Amino acid sequence: MDGVIVDSEPLWGVAMHEIFSTIGFNLTPYDYSKTTGLKLNEVIDYWHNVRPWSNKTKETVITEIYDGVQNLIHAQGNLMEGIRDLLEQLKTNDYKIGLASSSSLRLIRFVLEHFELAPYFDHVHSAEGEVFGKPHPAVFITCAQALGATNHQEVLVIEDSVNGLIAAKAARMRTIAMPDPHKRNDPRFVIADKIVHSLREINPLMLEDIFMN
Q: Which of 53, 75, 108, 194, by CA, is between 20 and 30 Å from 174?
């Protein structure tokens, strides 16, 4: 969802910077990149292990960050360019569409309702219901099963993060990577079946080509 459906990665940075500053952290964009794609509780556990704090519980920090991200998306969030057209094309061509995200189910539902995208999706699934988040493949496997996929080679995942891409590959699914502009030179994205710079590049003919190879 984040970075593929809605341009929320910068908003996550704003919310996390604001909340982390209340517990004595001054994280840089590079610091945030270390945990991209992880579940929020895993992010909090990571930084708590690096430098434990005691003025707030980890649960309070998680809630405050989710509240901050939701408020920012509501106030200034934008859909990724081409997402609505892509969803229309997929529906027209009878693809089943799932949303598998590290974000909470609460935030997923808010985004889909706020941008009126919910009708496009046959199933949505949050990694908060899994024991492990990305790069573990569980969130993709569970979502694919809910869509009725019996062969993971028939599933294609669109991802913007390396952790997400690794998760999809571990599930033996086809992949399209759409890295953030400042991450496009990351050589790890080469494992994707296709790399694009915009959702507008994706069309049914591209998908057919990926599934044929």
A: 108
Residues 25 and 106 in one domain: no
Q: Residue 2 domain-assigned?
A: no
User: In this structure, which amino acid lies at residue 76?
Assistant: Q
Q: What is the CATH number of the domain that holds 104?
A: 3.40.50.1000
Residue 66 structure tokens: 């989710």
CATH number at 66 reads: 1.10.150.240
Which of 45-49, 97-101, 127-131 is predicted most confidently?
A: 97-101
User: 101-118 pLDDT, tens per residue?
Assistant: 999 999 999 999 999 999
pLDDT, one tens digit per residue, over 26-41 is: 888 788 777 876 889 9
3-state secondary structure string across the chain: CECCCECCHHHHHHHHHHHHHCCCCCCCHHHHHCCCCCCHHHHHHHHHHHCCCCCCCHHHHHHHHHHHHHHHHHHHCCECCCHHHHHHHHHHCCCCCEEEECCCHHHHHHHHHHCCCHHHCCEEEEHHHCCCCCCCCHHHHHHHHHCCCCCHHHCEEEECCHHHHHHHHHCCCEEEECCCHHHCCCHHHHHCCEECCCHHHCCHHHHHHHHHC
155-195 pLDDT, tens digit per residue, is 999 999 999 999 999 999 999 999 988 888 999 999 999 99
